[in-house]
Amino acid sequence: MTEDTLRCEIVKFGALLYARGLAHGSAGNLSIRLDDGAILVTPTNSSLGSLTPVKISKVSPAGDLLAGNPPSKEAFFHLAVYEERPSAKAIVHLHSTHAVALSCICHDDSANVLPPLTAYQMMRVGRLPLVPYYRPGDRKLAEAVRRLAGGHKAMLLANHGPIVSGTSLQDAVHSFEELEETAKLFFLVGNRPVSLLTCEAIVELSEAFPS
């Protein structure tokens, strides 16, 4: 796709996520990696429901603004994911209700904060580690994200929300939606006895649908 087409992709999926109630106000950001390593990322203080293609920020791999409006203050952790995960071509980071709620509760195992409830969760999200809390815009968050990005398609920022990467923006969006729906299921089942996927089932899924 051309850069102009990819800008329009960000606008299209931003509007879709906003319309579905997964984004609100000016929270959250989307990005796409270009062939030269630069990224297109949503501008700072912009609503995903009303983006404009020409205003989408273009940022160099070093974090310098190349075109468009000033980028999201969280563009630096997008760059960290891209550096550590060569297969990632796009990233979705939103503050969706159930995933953020999951990020706010205490977890016994920060290496994986969602039990294996469904096959599509394992296929699209996989293990979901919790990244320690850092204030929005803190550059130390990039290093914390970098340590986990290579081995995980998705991660959860404590008291903040998820970061999900994909082979395209559509892939990342679909995986993000699966994560949000799984978080919703997690709260719906609550403390009831749950039939979780077995280790054998998870291995079979990972072999049939490698990430």
From TrEMBL:
Pfam families: Aldolase_II (PF00596)
Molecular-function GO term, any one: aldehyde-lyase activity
Gene3D superfamilies for this protein: Class II aldolase/adducin N-terminal domain (3.40.225.10)
Lineage: superkingdom: Bacteria
Cofactor(s) in the UniProt record: Zn(2+)
Class II aldolase/adducin N-terminal domain mapped to chain residues: 8-187
GO CC terms of this entry: cytosol
Entry-linked InterPro entries: Aldolase_class_II_sugar_metab, Aldolase_II/adducin_N, Aldolase_II/adducin_N_sf, OtnC
Free-text function comment from the UniProt entry: Catalyzes the decarboxylation of 3-oxo-tetronate 4-phosphate to dihydroxyacetone phosphate (DHAP) and CO(2).
Similarity remark: Belongs to the aldolase class II family. AraD/FucA subfamily.
Name of the protein: 3-oxo-tetronate 4-phosphate decarboxylase
UniProt organism field: Neorhizobium galegae bv. orientalis str. HAMBI 540
